Amino acid sequence: MSSNNAESSPALGPQQHYLQALADRRLLLQRCAECGWHQFPPRSLCVHCGAGEPDWVSPSGLGTVYSCSVVARAPEVGGDYNVVLVDLDEGVRLMSHMVNHPEGSSLIGSRVSACFEPGPEGPRLVFTPVEEAA
Ligand SMILES: [Zn+2]
Asked: How many Å lie between the centroid of ligand 1 and the Cα of residue 37?
């Protein structure tokens, strides 16, 4: 740790911390040490109780699709793609992209798991369907 360049390199903010973990193919969420609240996007305070510096935890990655929409795009730039909102079991909602699902099937309400796929700017967080024992 160097202290003489504090101005040019401020301490890693919550958003940078989150993105740096993603670049390592790790999904992190914040969990408040005081009240146990999980939150996303990352902030420096718990939005639930106001306590400072929430802990970082690794969620299960499991969740349920809350909504899904298809964005139309020309075939020459990759074709249509979907955008999903996923409610993680920890209680936070993430916007992402669904992979490995049957074309045309309804995704809403389906169980999914977080995974990573290579993207142009490094690993990209996506979701894939999971079959769960009843
Ligand atoms: Zn809290």
From this structure: 5
Query: pTM of the prediction?
Result: 0.83
Q: What is the pLDDT along the chain (134 residues), one digit of tens a residue?
A: 444 443 444 578 999 999 999 999 999 999 999 999 999 999 999 999 999 999 999 999 999 999 999 899 999 998 988 999 999 999 999 999 999 987 767 889 999 999 999 988 899 999 999 976 66
- Determine the distance separating the centroid of ligand 1 and the alpha carbon of 38, expressed in angstroms: 8
Name the strands in the sheet holding 29-31, side by side, starting at the edge strand that comes first in the sequence. 38-39, 29-31, 55-57
How much distance in Å is there from the Cα of 20 to the middle of ligand 1? 23
| φ, ψ for residue 76, nearest 5 deg | -70, -15
- The residues placing their C-beta within 5 Å of ligand 1, an ion, are 32, 34-35, 37, 46, 48-49, 51
- Backbone phi, psi, residue 100, to 5°: 60, 35
Q: Is the peptide bond before 41 cis (omega within 30 degrees of 0)?
A: yes
